[in-house]
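Retro notes (design track)

What went well: tokenization of the new backbones is finally stable.
What didn't: we kept losing track of which sequence belonged to which structure.
Fix going forward: every design gets posted as structure first, then sequence, in one message. First example under the new rule, 137 residues:
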């Protein structure tokens, strides 16, 4: 499934939107690779990318939450922790079993679930909170 970044997903913070767009690109690359039978090659690079990405991206969002006193910070943080945990399960499976079809499907499902459940709802809620505060600066 291809996903498209649209302006309704914007949190109006350039840095965060840029990171989300990068993630979308990677999810779509995996989708293309799966269709072309090249997913085994793609998955290794994707997991390596995500390893660094989750740390940097979640830290960026959480810094904004702290800086602007976001009341839902504890809740949002638990969602990030959930993703990190799920991601580490997939990564360990990849390390142990190699790029099997199961690992590829697990990765794809995790990212699609994340996109529809987190970016679309939890992150846009953060954007709605930050918007008036950032507009005042
Ligand atoms: Fe988030």
């Amino acid at each position: 499934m291809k996903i498209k970044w649209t302006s309704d997903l914007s949190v109006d913070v350039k840095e965060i939107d840029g990171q989300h767009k990068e993630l979308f690109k990677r999810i779509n690359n995996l989708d293309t690779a799966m269709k072309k039978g090249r997913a085994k090659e793609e998955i290794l690079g994707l997991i390596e990318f995500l390893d660094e990405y989750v740390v940097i991206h979640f830290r960026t969002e959480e810094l904004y939450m702290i800086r602007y006193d976001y009341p839902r910070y504890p809740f949002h943080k638990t969602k990030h922790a959930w993703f990190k945990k799920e991601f580490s399960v997939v990564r360990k499976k990849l390390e142990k079993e190699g790029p099997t079809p199961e690992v590829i499907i697990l990765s794809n499902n995790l990212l699609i679930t994340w996109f529809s459940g987190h970016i679309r709802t939890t992150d846009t809620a953060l954007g709605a909170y930050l918007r008036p505060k950032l507009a005042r600066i």
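Added context from the reviewer: The CA atoms of residues 21 and 75 lie 23 Å apart.
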